[in-house]
Structure formats: structure tokens, C-alpha cells
Amino acid sequence: MSKQMIISIMSKDRTGIIADVTGAIFELGGDLADLNQSVLCGYLTMILFASFDEEIRAGQVIDRINRIDSPTALDVVAREVEDVDRTDTGLPQKTYIMTSQGANRKGLVYGISSFCYHNDINILDLATTIQGDTYTMVLQLDLSRVASIVDLRTALQNYARQNDLQIILQHHDLFKVTNEIPF
Amino acid sequence: MLRSDQILATVEMIQKENLDVRTVTMGINLLDCRSGSVAQTCENIEERIAGKAGKFVETCNLVSRKLGIPVVNKRISITPISLVGAGYSRDDFVELARCLDRAATSVGVDILGGFSAQVEKGMTETDRQYILSLPEALAVSEKVCASINIASSQKGINMDALAMLGQTVKDIAEYTRHQNGFGAAKFVVFCNQPGDNPFMAGAIHGIEEADTVLNVGVSGPGVIARSLEKLISTRSDNGGSLKLDEIAEDIKQTTFRVTRCGELVGRQVSDLLGVQFGVVDLSLAPTPTVGDSVGEILHILGVDAIGAPGSTAILAMLNDAVKKGGIFASKTVGGLSGAFIPVMEDAVLAEAVGSKHLCLEKLEAMTCVCSVGLDMVAIPGSVDGDTIAAIIADEMALGMVNNKTTAARLIPVPGKEVGDSVSFGGLFGASPIMEIRNVGKSSRFIGWGGRIPAPIHSFKN
Predict the structure, then answer these.
(1) Chain B touched by A77 (CB under 8 Å)
(2) Which member of A144, B151, B153, B317 has the greatest number of CB atoms within 10 A?
(3) Across the interface, do B8 and A179 touch by the CB < 8 Å criterion?
């Protein structure tokens, strides 16, 4: 019987963090399944999914990672999880890309994410950039629970007008075909 | 997830650079609609078009809304009408034009092509009746486009048909005098006409095609122009040099992306309608909108006046790069596939006519290296039929000898001369009247009739 665990790490970025953390998991007999990491403003965040023998507890994993001789502080969270569905079903059929551009100000991400929440839209991924005074958000959205794309576009147009933003919503397929070569 | 810069580049293509799918064209076979009476044939045709294309426009709009990319035109092409109306008279063909106009209106398409005949070797009596019907047919219908194939690399040029067509073009313009001869903008003469071209006015549903098929025409001069501007300015900011082969590569890559959008839309519409997908036509089709011009690309690539020496060479490179980028992007490519230089529909080309930088002879030279030919050229209404026929003959010879499609869509604008301008509005655009030199000096040539034999290199068996 094995135990499944989600582990999250945050640290100032440096070389060797992934080697240190996965080494610690290996020592505890863990089997690493998935790992995602990204770096923002010089800080690394990483989320891992691993399986351990039944007797390993989340606390032991945290302790072992905290004992790594690291020149940067590692903030660790580990949580035991059950019934994780790891079947990769790919993106939902109604995956859309929303881009929003406008003058930078507070609350832009909050506004767009609230709009999505109120319209029953799940945000699958989100990236933001700032160039000069222009703040750009690129969101990957699941519109599976949206009944009418026409109504949504109208609501989005109103939202964009009220908030002085340029918002565009297009199907993910369009971006796939223009940027990827099928194989 | 795709990278943000990739996503933003695609968004820019559509929002700021006029990327659209220029047309989705449904080809419909009408061969078996022929009946004993014209009335019954018309009924059969209207029933066929309503049955096949009843949900066509709605489906295109649905896919357009779903993907977030405009589909500008929804069109129908049909089996060349001279085959459908075999044995009919001039008046019967006019009736068929009316019926096609009704059918196109009832299913909500923008335009219908295929009021056509293929006479590259010889004419039947039906073909003659069809040609005689053209002036009235194009005047009484709004959405019907006509075309005729009078030449091919295999068969030569049918000069008897050509002699009739010089005057017919004038008559078509005269019948629509109140619209500045607009009827002639709906009629095009071809050499090597393809049967799967989705663009108007020359779209037909060739007899080699299945019952129903969807062909897509992509656009994108604006996308290519903006991409080239970006490439040139980035390279210049970095102090680096830029060579033409790198420019050609940029055009290829941009065309790849443009074509993939067209393919995506076409295949989704075709799946939803349960209709066979035909081809993507990789043409750069300009519109009168500022920033959506093939002429502008020539400017960007280094000629300060369209028609100046170098224009033909640039166009040759552009045309080739568009094909190379597009061919890899689509499973099936066909139609015309090349850069269009329709004078009235391209604001920069039209301006070059007004400033006398672009003359008919240079335009003709440019048509040797691109598709489709002397397209949407407004000429003085006083030019005689034989001169028009001879201009068309020259263009046909280019296509015949070079194994390519060429076409002529000349509009002799009634009552207008060099110095005047004409505007048809919308996608048909506007232009000053182009000067025709040596008017009235080709009648002896046109008077011969007969055929110009096929060139020696057509005998390949």
C-alpha cells in the first residue's frame, strides 16, 4: 500500500534546488510522478506529486527537506492526498485563451478572475507581463460550463468597455494551429 | 500552455493585422438539375442549393464565433451553368441567372459563382447562347458572378470566343451603366481556370469535383506587411543587416500561420456540415482597407513606386514564399494559390494607377509571376471591343505558355476616361481609370478568329 503526497516548495532561485529536493524524496523511498516549476522575479516555486511507503508521514517529508544544507531558505508544504485522478485527459474541448491588455493599475487580475468566477469559468493557467505602462494578462480558460459563447462575448465586451481594457477571447485551437506543428 | 508571446502574436495577427478567413466557398454540383423546362430546372436548382447550403452561413458564423476569427465571405460555386443549361437559349440563361440570384439570397451567401462556360477549344451553340446572355444576366442579378475559360496550355486559345468577349465585356458594362459598369466586375475571362478556386468572380464547381465540397480562401497581406515591418525595424535597431532570403523566410513562416487558421476553420465547418473538405487556396487577397494591401508589401520591400523596376522581381519572391509557407500548413492546397493584384481592390495599387507609376504593360508583366492576372482594372469606356479582346488575348498567352492560371477582369467604365475615377464600394474598391495605349490598333489580329494552337511544351505524352 502506498501513500500519495503533494509537496510544494518556494525558494529564492539558485542552481541545485530540484536536485536537493528530489534527492531528499529519493532518500525517503519516494517515487516522483509529476513536477511543475516556475520562476518569477528570481523566486522559484515548485509543486511535486510523489508516492511513499505507507509509514511515511507528511511531517517527515517536511523535516527531511528542511534539513537540506541549502544556502537559500526553502518554504515547504506537504500534504497527504487520496484518490488522485492522474489520467491525462488533455485540455477540455472548450478551452479558450483570453488576453487582456490595459494601463497598469491595482486590481486588474482580481477583476478578470472575478469575472471568470461569476461566469462559471475555470482558469487553467494564467501568465501576466508588464511592458511600459501596459499590463497584459494571458489566461487559459475552461468554458465547459458556459452555455452561450455569444452571451459571454457580450458580457466580456461590456466588462472591457467599463474597465478600459482590450479583451479578446479565442479558442485554444487557433493558437495551437498557428504555433505548433502536429505530429 | 503556449507561451504568452506566441499567443499575443496570434492575437495581433487577427486584431491588428486584418487576418481573416477571406472566404469559405461551398461547391455544389448542379449537373443533374437539368430538366425539360427552364422553370423546372430553376426549381431543381433552388431546391438543391437550399438543401445543401441551407445551414452553410449559420455554420460558418458559428465556427467564426467559436474560434474568434472572422470569416468575411460565405459563398457558393456551382457547376458551370453552360453544362447545366445544355441546349438552352439566351433568354433561358437569363432566367437561370435570376434563379441563381434567388437561391443565393435565400441561403444568405454573399455571392455565387459558376455562371460560367468552358470553351478553350471550341464553342457549342449553347456556349454562344450563354455568352449572348451575359450582359442581361449580370444586370438582372445581384449576387451572380460569371467566368469563362477560353484558353489552356493544353488546347491553346479560342480566338472566336475571345472576339465575342471583347464586345461582350463592353455590353456587360453598358447594361450596368447606372452602376458605372459594375456588371463587368462580376465577369472574368480565364486561361487554365481551376475547378476548386474559392475566390470570386472566378469560382466554379469543376466537373471533376464531388457532389458538394468546401474550399477555403485565406487572406493576409496585412499580416505579412506588419510582420515584415517588424522584422526590418528590429534588425535595423540591432544594427544588423537583412537579406532578401531572410525576408522570404519570414513571409513563409507568416503564411504558414495564416494558412493554418484557414485550414482549421474550413475543416470545422466541413465537419459540422458533413461536407467533404476540398482545398485551401493560398492566395494573398488584398482588400481596399488601408493596411491590407499587396502593393504595400512591395513598398516595404523596397520599391518607392508600384510599377517601378524591381516590382516584378519582388512579386515573384512574394508569390513563391507564400506558396512554400502555405503548402506545408495545409493537407490539401489548390485553387489559384498566389498573390492577387486586383487594382481596384488594393488601395496602394489603385493609387499607383492614379499617379501613373503603374501602367497596363507593367501590370501585365507582374501578372506573369503571380496570380491571377489583369484583375479589376478600370479602363476608359470608349475603348473598343477588339482592343479589349486583344488585351485579354495577351493575358491568355501568358497563362498558356507559362502553364499557369491567368485571367482578365477589365471594366470599361461607361462615360469615364483617363483622369476620372470609379468606386464600387465595399470589397470591390475604387480606382482611377487606367490609360490604355494603342487603342484601336489590334482589330486585324482579332478579326482572324480560329485558334491559337497549344504551345509545343503542352505535348508531353
Answers:
(1) no
(2) B151
(3) no
Query: B68 vs A171: CB contact, 8 Å cut-off?
Result: yes
Domain span at B378: 1-448
With residue A169 as reference, give the H or E element that holds it: strand A166-171
pLDDT in tens, B120-153: 999 999 999 999 999 999 999 999 999 999 999 9
Instruction: State how far the Cα of B133 lies from the Cα of A54, in Å rounded to an integer.
Output: 88
Mean pLDDT of B170-191: 98
CATH number at residue B372: 3.20.70.20
Nearest to A173 among B6, B65, B264 (CB): B264
H/E run at residue A125:
strand A122-131
Kindly report, residue by residue over A65-120, the tens digit of the pLDDT. 999 999 999 999 999 998 777 776 678 889 999 999 999 999 999 999 999 999 99
B67–A173: do the CB atoms touch at under 8 Å?
yes
Chain A CB within 8 Å of residue B456 CB: no
Alpha helices in B20-89 (DSSP H): 38-53, 56-67, 81-84
Provide the ipTM: 0.73
**Range of B13-17, B117-121, B339-343 with top mean pLDDT:** B117-121
Domains in chain A, start-ordered, CATH in brackets? Answer: 2-81 (3.30.70.260), 95-179 (3.30.70.260)
The whole-angstrom separation of Cα B280 and Cα B439 is: 39
